[in-house]
Amino acid sequence: MSGATSNELVLHAPAKLNLFLKVLGKREDGFHEIDTIMQQIDLHDTLRFRLRDDGQIRLQIRYTNRSQATADPLPTDESNLVVKAARLLQQLCEVPFGADIELWKRIPSQAGLGGGSADAGATLRGLNRLWNAGLDQHTLIELAAQLGSDIPFFAAGHSLARCQGRGEIMTPARSRPISFVIVKPQTGLSTAAVYSGCSSSSFPQSGKDVINALHEPNPAGLKYCVRNGLEQPARQLNATVERLLTLMEQQPFLSTMLCGSGSACFGICHSRKQSLQLARRLQGLTAEDVFVARSRV
After folding, report:
1. Where ATP is bound, by residue (predicted)?
2. 20 lies in which domain range?
């Protein structure tokens, strides 16, 4: 979704779920080789870009969750991925313009939902339009890969894709309506710490198996192929994640998984109605944040 005038642009930055994540090993460049299925969901941040003539990049963050604003406020300086993305595009294209960027945060941080990456990808797409930089999608994806492994997916704007390499090799696929329940602990997880606990995944399934299951008339086959190779180290690192996943495994979800590198966990539901029922049940069983989401198609 977007709205624009010549000097202003508004974009949504959807979160993602990894319906599958297999770690194939560590590369010489220090990144991990992965095979993953990324699915955009209807939970999103919103960014408003306003043109500046002086070349400055100013970021302001507004929180829809008051506890996040007070407990874990994000930086607004050059260390923020949004500012990094804006600077990278500005320098590559040698544009004289800057931007005032307002970011409304709804996606929780340190959850494995890709909030920071989604914001950076939306920034590349948004400022490419606002500044009339004229970069094609391929170039935007190459820029995104310089910023982080998840960001090419968000810069491309796919609803669903199989991502390989370190995440930059993408094969878009047709998405389908799926309902989810997501539970976010108050504590986060370090992505580096979680990855360091997983040298490679041992399960035989691949991302292709998930794509094939998604294209079947009945999605029940997903339960046989959705996997996350980071789940076991995350469970060992965080007792709350272990407790939540155990609790969710006792509910009638189609399948339950860790979100990316955590700390959020999610369940795949048979229907929208079931997602609302299971969310209410989990809200009565845990003090953690519980919410429902749907796939973007």
Report:
1. 108-118
2. 2-171
